[in-house]
Amino acid sequence: MERTLIILKPDAVQRRLIGRIIQRFEDKGLTIAGMRLMRISRELAQKLYSAHEGKPFYPRLMEYITSGPVVVTVLQGNRCIEIARALMGKTFGYEAAAGTIRGDFGASGSFNLVHGSDSAESSSTEIPLFFTEQELLEYSPASVDWVFPKVDS
Ligand code: IDP
Ligand code: MG
User: Who has the most CB within 10 Å: 42, 96, 113, 138?
Assistant: First the structure.
């Protein structure tokens, strides 16, 4: 099954939204394979956001993501990258649709609560920055066949 890296960014933790945001992913039927509360170092932030180096907002992005504890989690499920991105909504809360995490909880043009891998390629480079294979648990919640039928479209 596919996996994606999700980060609840410092604003999500400071605003005590961890439970409500994780709930969205659980409600959808995605499985938590790994989870940790941590503070992202500058070195790690540079690796995570290497694609954005040189962009005008990069210094502020580095400051933001290293400014406080984050919750890093790996979610698992068929098409979970696309599903998680849809649950997150557009990049900033002012433009994200109501019903999405960013649309419901955010209004800022810089703080946006969550990070989610945007492709299979990025999830495969992002996940190992935070978790070893041993730290990711392979299990099948009792409900999983009802969320992802063995024969599906
Ligand atoms: P995404 O998180 O929706 O994939 P990206 O374009 O990949 O958005 O940007 C990564 C992160 O960089 C965003 O989540 C946001 O925190 C920050 N960012 C992107 N564009 C801007 C901007 O124009 N101003 C300030 N921060 C930005
Ligand atoms: Mg992105």
Answer: 113
Which residue range is the domain that position 133 belongs to?
2-152
Length of the chain: 153
From the CB of 73, is ligand 1 less than 6 Å away? Answer: no
Point out the ligand nearest to the CA of residue 49.
Answer: 1
pLDDT tens digits, 56-102: 999 999 999 999 999 999 999 999 999 999 999 999 999 999 999 99
* Cut 0.90: pTM above it: yes
Q: Is the dihedral of CA 103, 114, 74, 83 positive or negative?
A: positive
Give the list of residues 6+ apart from residue 114 with CB closer than 8 angstroms, or none: 6, 7, 8, 9, 12, 21, 88, 101, 102
Query: Where are the alpha helices (H) located in 35-151, listed in sequence order?
Result: 42-48, 58-65, 80-88, 101-105, 120-130, 144-147
Task: Residue 41: give its domain's CATH number.
Answer: 3.30.70.141
Total structural domains within the chain: 1
Q: Is the CB–ligand 1 distance for residue 94 below 6 Å? A: no
